[in-house]
Amino acid sequence: MQSPVEKNLRAKRISELDIERYALWAGLFCALFGLSTGLIIFAGQRPALFGGLSVGSVASVTAGVSAGTASAYAFRRLLRHRETWLRDIPKWRQYVVGLGLVVVHVASTVMITLVVSYLFQQAFFGLHMDVLAASLSVAAISGLSAYLSLVATARTNAENLSIVLGIYMAAGVLISMLLAENQIWWQGMFSTLGTSGSGMGSFWTFNTTMVISGLVLAAFAEFLTRDLAVLSQTYRCRPSLERYPMIRRLRPRPRVVRWCLIAVSIGVIGVGSIPMDLAPQVHSAFVQLASGAMVILLLGTWVLLPGHPAVFHLMSLSAVGALWLAFLLWNSWGYYNLTGFELSAVAILFTWISVFIRTTAAMIRDRQRPHRPHAGGVQDPYLNKDKQNH
């Protein structure tokens, strides 16, 4: 049996105003949750902003719970009704998408709350708050986290999810660098941050970031595959190329792209799940899996994505050349160490992924928007009103 809320959501289209309304309600309820939690925990105390039983530590828990609850609700009740194709994919894939969205919002919320409270504690050194002020602070953080998480989840698409993924990965790796007890970790490789020798803070931050990033990448693969599937339905071979039999057989291959991205996500999850000092061979195998899948995507864009612009395919081949040059600079010429090569490779791959996503999103928008001639017949009510007045 469907609940009355679900029947109501199925009966009507989810509008932008509906999202804002649900987000405001979520913010209100979670603010009350944060306020009551703060009043109970801080009773008879004057907590600091960071450290121990502080405003930051309590708020990170309540805000994380609020963000996770709001994100799960938005995925179940809003996003699946805005993106109806999500309900058509197998259940286990729906769970992977939902889990990826929920955990990235929870982890981002906890990370931001702790970092901001630490910075404020440094700015206001020695500050202690009374029960009411501390509880109101927790309430505000919890309510804002719920509001933003619900809005972000309900409006998820491939383009903004890629931005969330990039920001989260960069922030997580940067924090793990700052927490590393081994200050010369960069003389080895990035995976050193995920070893016990770098300290527990760096160990958990780096590995958790990798695992969550892999889950988000799996969710991102679903949204991007959907966009590519829509484009493949309208794909037409260019008339100038139809005389070539091989070219006529080329068609977009969204499923192959999806499996490549799934392989990358499995590799990233494996890197975080199996630290280098625990099983070096297995850790390296996951790195090679992710790297190999990305190289297949870069080399195969002409075959897998024939409808994309020629300049995009040229950029893909240029990215392969840049990766090879970066490898030679490390392995053959000794210009920098392994960490330098990893930084170069990540920068090249993320640049290509960003261009890939933006190009695909632009093609989707062009398919959805009807073609109109240039501005001749556009009516501006303000201009018309001015003309009538004159």
Any overview of this molecule?
With 390 residues, the protein is mostly helical. Helices cover 73% and strands 0% of the residues. It has helices spanning 4-11, 16-41, 55-82, 91-123, 131-154, 158-179, 200-233, 245-249, 254-273, 280-299, 301-304, 310-331, 338-368, 381-389. It is flat. The N and C termini lie far apart (63 Å). Mean pLDDT is 83; it is low at 4-9 and 373-378.
Q: Please indicate the percent range of residues in DSSP E strands (runs of 2 or more).
A: under 5%
> Average pLDDT value?
83
Shape: flat
The percent of residues in helical segments reads over 70%
- Regions with pLDDT < 50 over 5+ consecutive residues? 4-9, 373-378
Report on the biggest sheet.
Answer: none
Computed structural class: mainly alpha
Could you give the count of β-strands?
Answer: 0
- Helical run tally: 14
Strand and helix order: HHHHHHHHHHHHHH
